[in-house]
């Protein structure tokens, strides 16, 4: 009985050793990957910061003003003015065009249709 | 081999010899006990030794680990989750809508190790070619005089860095640097201030604020815990740009030396725009004036809106009127003595251009016509003590609490003694000097219904509370009076159709450094609020030494200079803030009985 136990525990030891070895290398590989990813993230973040700065620089009010002045004939942009506020009622809605009545329809109603209504 | 206690052979022998056999047994017992004792002592010693080894081993391991930890270079934890690390050493600054006002960029500094340089002379010549401001001779001398370290440039552009790379000398090295960038250039320069490098090392350099918000909130901006969250200011970039544009145009049109404008939300105290001209570029901050004779105001770094402590002139008159109404001394229609000139002791108080609006004028007209004499009489009713207390409550005795490093230094100039003549002059804004920011805060108190709020450059989420300095009724009456100044008084050019501007002009002579006042140098201020029916915003416009030459005669009063500039600013910014122009009710049609 005892020798069997010895053999089994020895085999278990070898198995555990193998497992530990593999885990060790897997962990190191994962750490290395994390490091690479973090370096990438830092790089991308830096890039993002540069892009943001660039965006802010290109959209600075001075430049936009110059651009709108330079392209006035195409865009016709003017500074906002009080007179540009309007009432909702002033909005010109497109005229409603009803399709022509080209077929006979039945008219139902409680009161008799007048001639004008038709 | 165990020895028996009574070995038969020896016992028999002893009996035979007539000796006591018990002696043998005792002797044997003693020997056996001795052997047992010897054995257990050996075992105990061994155990002690093992324990010692265990302790030495344990403490040795701990000690070795500690020594190892202390001796190794610190390294970043490799397994931390991304996002937890500090992204930048200084937080971004944004406007109230999240548009970037200040951010960081990674760049490089250039330094040299002359000892490992291959060709110092050639390197010096090539560097001078890349950087025109460097001198090849000086560089070469510094590379060859035996020192082992030389700083060459604090900041490089990517193109310059590439050119330096192409020199290819192993003695030229780069250190990473974080550069503070203000993408909008001169916009809001006085608010932002600027930064410079603090302690510099090869691997990094501190970025520290040197002025404005950057210095006042340096600790917040450098706090690693808040490195990822941008600091949101109350400034609105579009409004700021518009205010600066219009103010700049007005300044050059009116030949002014300088100008300042403050736009403030009257309810929350948030400063939406703060401009001071001439301005500068915080990316390339000019050095302060070194000339002793130069006035601080001559430098573009001078923030007129906050540091410019001047007599603010007639804009103060509304405070006397408001206080008198608050105390119940007068009402808007009470007639007061306005017979000019007024004599007080040896002093003579005159009106503008020696006019006389008297003999009697209603309080409302005193403000509308800007009568010095009328205001003086109102102030005398109030008395010096109550006047001081009111001005103190409005914040005119302390520096403004706004988040700029320049603000605490801009202490108002208050008369040391307060006799009645000072009460009179202070009531129309002479003798007491304060900054436009003080005026903005005090006018905000009138505009928001009588609550003194703290002006701030930080974005606020909700309404703020403050100390009540006058009742809502008084404040409403004061606003009505200010509205009359625009509709029928000295600020008629300030009318912007639809926005019901209310305000008060102020023209003050500039004091000479040697004492007395200049005849032809004035500070013109227009303190306004809009829309008058429900004031939401306060706008202060100040022009330094303006001169209107568009007409036949030169004009220096605020009504001709700062008022039209302020009106144009309001006309431009009110739509940007989403304020709908309001059609004021037209005057009722008067019917006249006409006979057919």
Keywords:
heterodimer, A: 118 residues, mainly alpha, 3 helices, B: 596 residues, alpha+beta, Penicillin-binding protein 2a (Domain 2), five-stranded mixed beta sheet, five-stranded antiparallel beta sheet, 20 strands
Question: What does this protein look like?
Answer:
The complex is a heterodimer of chains A (118) and B (596). Chain A has 118 residues and is mainly α. Chain A has helices at residues 2-58, 61-70, 72-75. Chain B is 36% helix and 19% strand. Chain B is built from 18 helices and 20 strands. Chain B is an alpha+beta fold. In chain B, a hairpin with a 2-residue loop joins strand 12 and strand 13. Chain B is elongated, with a radius of gyration of 42 Å. Chain B has two domains: 96-232, Penicillin-binding protein 2a (Domain 2), CATH 3.90.1310; 238-284 and 301-576, 3-Layer(aba) Sandwich (Beta-lactamase). The A-B interface holds A 31, 34-35, 37-38, 41, 45-46, 49-50, 52-57, 59-62, 65, 79-85 and B 78-79, 82, 85, 87-88, 99-100, 103-106, 181, 183-185, 187, 237-238, 241-242, 245, 496-499, 571-572, 574-576, 580-581.
Kindly report the name of the CATH homologous superfamily of the largest domain in chain B: DD-peptidase/beta-lactamase superfamily
Q: Determine and state the CATH class of the largest domain in chain B.
A: Alpha Beta
Biggest sheet record of chain A? none
Low-pLDDT windows of residues of chain B: none
CATH architecture of the largest domain in chain B: 3-Layer(aba) Sandwich
Tell me roughly what share of residues is in helical segments of chain B.
25-40%
Taking the alpha carbons of the first and last residues of chain A, their distance comes to 111 Å
Total beta-strand segments of chain B: 20
Structure annotation, total helices of chain B: 18
Global morphology of chain A: elongated
Order of helices and strands of chain A: HHH
Mean pLDDT of chain B: 86
In whole angstroms, the N-to-C terminal distance of chain B is 162 Å
Q: What structural class is derived from the secondary structure elements of chain A?
A: mainly alpha
